[in-house]
Amino acid sequence: MKVTDHIKAAKGKTLFSFEIIPPVKGHNIRELYDNIDPLMEFNPPFIDVTTSREEYVYIDRNGLLDKKLTRMRPGTVGICASIKHKYNVDTIPHVLCGGFSKEETEYLLIDCHYLGIDNIMALRGDAMKDEKYFEPSEGGHEYASDLVKQIDNLNHGIYLHEVIETEDCADFCIGVAGYPEKHMEAPSLMSDLKWLKYKVDLGAKYVVTQMFFDNKKYFDFVKAARDMGIDVPIIPGIKPIAIKKHLQLLPQVFRIDLPQDLVDAVEACKNNKEVRQVGVDWAIAQSKELKAAGVPVLHYYSMGKSSNIKAIAEAIF
Ligand code: FAD
Q1: Which residue among 45, 241, 250, 290 sits deepest, i.e. has the most Cβ atoms within 10 Å of its Cβ?
Q2: Other Cβ atoms within 10 Å of 82 Cβ, number
Q3: CATH C-level class of 3-316
Q4: Residue 93 CA to its chain's centroid (Å)
Q5: CA of residue 136 to ligand 1 center, whole Å
Q6: Model pLDDT for residues 207-220, shown as the tens digit of each residue
Q7: Residue 315: band (very low, low, confident or very high) from pLDDT cuts 50, 70, 90
């Protein structure tokens, strides 16, 4: 079922959803299930599965280092299929521009269609670890909007090299990313919102936001988006802080601000167990306010660990 239909069916009730990351290559999928199992009692209508960018690894071949490009956490579509099958829940693969040609993306989308996946999160992807700026792959898309266009085309039987008239067209509901504190490369929030509107005009049906720790940023963003004519659901993304290092890491990686009260509370913690509790309490307070404001879904970034998300969900749902 499409995310937009889940939202309609909920008739104003806030839904619970979360995002997981595929295990590192060679690890068992059981570890993933162990983290999903405790969250299923909160009835998530859908679970997102991220896609990681490829990266360079160095393989020792008799003392000579061989540089190879590889994806350390592959398997997004396979994981979507296995979770969908195991838990009877909708799963949403994150599909990236980065690292894929348009042709490869078409094959991936066709796989998703055969698997009965109804939603696709269309993203550009970040720059690779050793790149300063995002570089599109050869034959790949430059912006998420180009990917949205490709998916929307497929929904109309328009493949890359031919138009196929068929009764069995894909009908993906397309999600895209939004940034309450603007995307790190955008010169201004207005410019970023203009491109967000472009993604919606091209066929995106809902937005999921980057994490934020001050709800005012989300409320202001939604207002600015509405003023600009973006009328699709805007789902807030919430991440509980879990370790002290997040104080530096999250602003550095995601270019977001942390409220001073939260920084003070984390700094006062004696260990990461206490930090975890501060993170859970903060996310509960955020979630309560967002739920009271009638957000359609509260979407949690689990980063593969469920115990803190479970504690938050218990307080909210
Ligand atoms: P875009 O919408 O393409 O925007 C990128 C930048 O270009 C923005 O600054 C925008 O303002 C600007 N822009 C957009 N279109 C144009 C245009 N036509 N001309 C000029 N400028 C333009 N990353 C992963 O690698 N894997 C994931 O699974 C993943 N999941 C995510 C989930 C969510 C909810 C969010 C919010 C982010 C996720 N990301 C993920 C991170 C995301 O890939 C990065 O933030 C990336 O840098 C931008 O992606 P985007 O889809 O927002 O790009």
Answers
A1: 241
A2: 16
A3: alpha beta
A4: 9
A5: 12
A6: 999 999 999 999 99
A7: very high
**Cα(94)–Cα(124) distance, integer angstroms:** 10
What SS3 class is residue 313?
Answer: helix
Q: State mean pLDDT over 148-162.
A: 96
Report the distance separating Cα 72 and Cα 248, nearest Å: 24
Locate the domains of the chain by residue range: 3-316
**Which of 222, 209, 173 has the alpha carbon at shortest distance from 299?**
209
Residues paired with residue 105 on neighbouring β-strands, in sequence order? none
Please identify which of the residues 19, 54, 106, 181 carries the catalytic annotation: 19
* CA distance readout (Å), 102 to 97, 107, 154: 8, 9, 12
Closest CA to 117 of 145, 150, 146, 95: 95
Residue located nearest, by CA, to atom 25 of ligand 1 = 125
Residue 288 CA to its chain's centroid (Å): 21
Known active-site residue 19: yes
Torsional class of 150: left (φ above 0), alpha (ψ -120 to 50), beta (otherwise): alpha
* Residue 317, CA distances (Å) to 17, 207, 288, 314 in order: 11, 22, 10, 6
DSSP string computed for 256-306: ----HHHHHHHHT-SSHHHHHHHHHHHHHHHHHHHHHTT-SEEEEE-TT--
Q: Is 123 helix (H, G, I), strand (E, B) or coil?
A: strand
Which atom of ligand 1 lies at the shortest distance from residue 208's CA? Answer: 34
Residue 129 confidence (pLDDT): 86
Question: Is the full-model pTM beyond 0.70?
Answer: yes
What are the CB-based long-range contacts (under 8 Å, 24+) for 72-75? 72/24, 72/25, 73/21, 73/22, 73/23, 73/24, 73/25, 74/22, 74/25, 75/22, 75/23
Distance 61 CA to ligand 1 centre (A): 37
